[in-house]
Amino acid sequence: MSDLEVRQLRYFVAVAEELHFGRAAERLGMAQPPLSRAIRELERQLGVALLERTTRRVALTPAGETLLRDARTALDAVTAAARRARRAGQPEPALRLALKADYDGGLLPAVLAAYREETAALPVDLVLGGPGQQEPALRDGRADVALLPRPFDEDGLDMEPFWTEPRLLAVAAGDPLAARTDLCLADLGGRVQPNGRPADREGLSSPAAVARRRPLDLAQIFNLVELGGAVWFVPESIARRHPRPGIALRPVTDLPPLTLALAWPRESRSPAVAAFVRAAGAVAAAAGASVRPVPRGS
Predict the structure, then answer these.
(1) How does DSSP assign the chain, residue by residue?
(2) Which range marks the domain in which residue 276 is found?
(3) Mean pLDDT by 10 residues, the chain (298 residues)
(4) Are 244 and 281 part of one and the same domain?
(5) Which residue, 59, 141, 163, 176, is most buried by CB atoms nearer than 10 A?
(6) Residue 113 lies in a domain
(7) pTM score, whole prediction
């Protein structure tokens, strides 16, 4: 069996994700007949059927499901290699840090200041994204290191815990829940979060499912909460930095805390990444003993 080509993997992933040859061909910018021939040739080359085809539907076989998973990983690795090579050849290299805005425990300015004192430090470019977008940025080469909430898929990544902090229920000040002081998740039945997820099922949805929803910025989230359209589990550091008189903050006894981690590709040997992780860990350790709880009144 000859080695697979990147082109073949791209063709197969498009068909496997669309489960429709016409849509896959349109996505790839090519005609359908040569795409169909390419997939048949790939199946002949591998000696297995990857797709079940009928006049009504296209479905993946077990072999196709396996190839789809591994092909995505391989394509991400190829894309990442190209991006990192281009960046390494730039006259002024930088460290690209992926994170969601405000999800840094309030420590990012101190971390960046400490990092600048490291011998191996590089200028830092921030790669801002919505929920669930930091891990893909690591895998496809858009970022060198990421600060992201756990849990996430750690396969192929190295990780160091960074910061853990409580989350509070943010609710409109006039909401009956604001008068309660002994809340648990079961009390939030029928309430939804700004991303549409049921509030009483927090922690049960996968990170991938969250990432598929349209992300909202902080102002949009606060507006929804103030107007009574949603409740939100706000990290304590964000509540401290963005007080809102129209929002009450209440503890929820069985609400898991927010845990942030630093992650980077396992194959990375970058002194700049190692220096950043070292500086961030030192800042977080020093800050841990000095954090004061945020006021929880309305």
Answers:
(1) -PPPPHHHHHHHHHHHHHS-HHHHHHHHTS-HHHHHHHHHHHHHHHTS--EEE-SS-EEE-HHHHHHHHHHHHHHHHHHHHHHHHHHHTSSS--EEEEE-TT-STT-HHHHHHHHHTSTT---EEEEE--TT-HHHHHHTTS-SEEEEESP---TTEEEEEEEEE-EEEEEETTSGGGG-SSB-GGGGTT-B-TTS-BGGGTT-S-HHHHHTSPP--HHHHHHHHHTTS--EEEEHHHHHHS--TTEEEE-BTTPPPEEEEEEEETT---HHHHHHHHHHHHHHHHHHTT--PPP---
(2) 95-155+262-286
(3) 81 92 92 92 92 88 92 83 71 89 94 96 93 90 94 92 96 94 92 91 57 72 93 94 93 94 91 96 84 51
(4) no
(5) 163
(6) yes
(7) 0.69
